[in-house]
Specification:
seven-stranded mixed β-sheet; 7 strands; about 40% helix; about 15% strand; alpha/beta; globular
């Protein structure tokens, strides 16, 4: 009984503390490499990320302890959630801006872009909007990270860039944030799929996205390694690759944020 009372007290205290903060909010969506499949060190899951908060399953900011995608309302089993782009990205954005960061992670392994479209029966789009709105009660949405495409490369989806443009316009409209920056991540460049298909997606499709979508940049996956050295067919980045990818996400995002734009003036 005492333990329960203490737990409730801590939850209330944390909630009140978070409610006083004016967060920089970031929405992280996509499939498994955004959810995170990198391996953890023991300290990764026991130490809170300084200056960073996660939106929990009931819409409250709590101190961020990985896995970052733990509160996704559409995720696969919790055991699959590994080291993710949100870890280092959120830490870097906090350290570079001096602002408290609130992460809304709502990714789902294996998801195709068609499942992220407005009105799709899977509800991924709807859930991203719902949870982002919850977070925006505590601060301003500063950016969206998108890492997805492995499923569509394997399916050889046609007009991916056009589908993405429709999806991101609908997402921005739904959040009443027509100019919110978006950063798109390139997929792994090893042989988990035909290399010409991977190369075309990374070097043609993603740049096309950022030519058509305003306030868009992309994060390169150049020389980033897979998690399993003995399984080239697995499309997931390892921990060190995720950390480097996160730095590239932050480098691409910072110049587009209010804080970054202020520093450039």
């Amino acid at each position: 009984m005492r333990a329960l009372v203490l737990y409730l007290f801590l939850c209330i205290s944390v909630g009140l503390y978070a409610a006083e903060k004016d967060f920089d909010v970031y929405l992280l969506i996509g499939q498994s490499n955004m959810a995170g499949r990198g391996e953890f060190l023991e300290s990764d899951t026991t130490t809170a990320i300084e200056g960073v908060w996660l939106l929990d399953s009931i819409g409250n900011p709590i101190e961020a302890v990985p896995p970052i995608n733990r509160y996704s309302s559409i995720r696969k089993d919790i055991q699959l959630q590994g080291y993710a782009p949100g870890n280092e990205f959120s830490c870097l954005m906090h350290s570079r801006t001096g602002r408290p960061v609130l992460i809304v992670a709502n990714a789902k392994g294996g998801a195709a872009i068609s499942q992220w479209m407005l009105g799709d029966k899977h509800g991924f789009f709807k859930e991203a909007v719902r949870r982002a709105r919850q977070a925006m009660k505590y601060g301003k949405l500063q950016g969206i990270l998108w890492h997805q495409g492995e499923t569509d490369v394997q399916k050889r989806t046609k007009d991916y860039a056009g589908k993405f443009n429709v999806m991101i316009d609908a997402l921005r409209d739904s959040l009443a944030m027509p100019d919110v920056p978006v950063v798109v991540g390139q997929i792994g460049q090893w042989g988990w799929a035909p290399k010409e298909d991977i190369r075309s997606f990374n070097d043609s499709v993603i740049p096309e996205i950022c030519r058509k979508v305003k306030n868009c940049r992309y994060a390169s996956s150049f020389r980033l390694h897979r998690r399993y050295r003995d399984n080239e067919r697995d499309p997931h980045f390892g921990r060190n690759a995720q950390r480097e990818l996160e730095r590239r996400y932050a480098d691409a995002m910072l110049p587009q944020t209010e804080k970054g734009l202020h520093h450039q003036i």
